[in-house]
Amino acid sequence: MDVKGSEQIIQNHLLDWYSRKKRPLPWRETRDAYKIWVSEIMLQQTQVGKVATYYNNFVNIFPDVTRLARADLDQVLKVWEGMGYYARARNLHKTARIITEYFGGRFPSDIRDILKLPGIGPYTAAAIASIAFDFPAAVLDGNVNRVLSRLTRLSHTPKSSTGKKLLEETALLLLDKKNPGAFNQAMMELGALVCTPRSPDCEHCPVSANCEAYKNSEAGNFPIKAPKRKRPHYIIAAGIIWKDNEILIARRPENGLLGGLWEFPGGKVEKDESIEQAVVREIHEELDVNVSPGERFDVVEHGYTHFSITLNVFHCHYLSGAPKAIGCTAWKWVKPAELALYAFPRANGKVIEKLLAGLLSETP
Ligand code: SF4
Prior knowledge:
This protein is of the alpha+beta class. Helix content is 44%, strand content 15%. It has 14 helices and 7 strands. Helix 2 packs antiparallel against helix 8 and helix 8 packs across helix 11. The longest helix has 17 residues. The radius of gyration is 24 Å and the shape is elongated. Iron/sulfur cluster binds next to helix 9 and helix 12.
């Protein structure tokens, strides 16, 4: 089923609804491509409510491309801390430097240039180009995929190649070419507020008269889902390595999961080794340092998108060896109170909170 012939009606009803019902979000008050870019990157994997706080803080500290490009990566990661998916922050920083070097600090307006920038895929490029520059590119994110799958009763999963192709064609057909920015935002807002995953409010939907799933009373059956894969689980061992009231922390390689963040050194427990043996081995492999694990200080359960971990953290006594950055990019001895100056992954953050609370309660 398609929506051919109904484009104009759908556009009118959707834009009218959007002008009345849209949420007042800070990035909707600007057409500055830099700020729209920042908000779109933040929104990729973080809920709107949380993004609003981080966005205001981020654009206050880094109000334009040049200011972001001039900042230290550590500073950017610190401002980003708590939002997760740190590759986004690293790419923002890297991209700001590219824009400064190759585009004179002005965000490029041509979608082909935008698409070449690190961390920007077709969705984000279409969002920036349409909202900031009125370029007629249709966005396709999870919300839009769901709305379009229901409007057309799409009989493929949105991630399959046929499903993707049909969704792209439908999105472009429906797009209001004179008002692409508002139309794209209206589609996303409809998916976020009305055409929600579990309980779509079809009775109050501005496009229900043109929705095939609604007409057939089967909104809940779309989009068609692909079978779920099981998330692997890893046991991680890490050490709080003490020497003269200071703790040894290491910085993760930039490319990869949680890249560029600081951590208590450690890693995955291998088959046939105890957690204590894993701490000693991992720390030696990462820093060329010998330690002896003492008491287990904390156990933290944490879930990432593609896997989950049990993080076991031990107080460790430093024995010997001058630290070397072998499996990390940098290391530092820091006082416990200085841990707050560095950006750590969330699971390490929980350990730090417990550690500092314990030290505080011991202070006479
Ligand atoms: Fe979604 Fe229901 Fe609107 Fe169809 S009528 S687009 S299923 S909210």
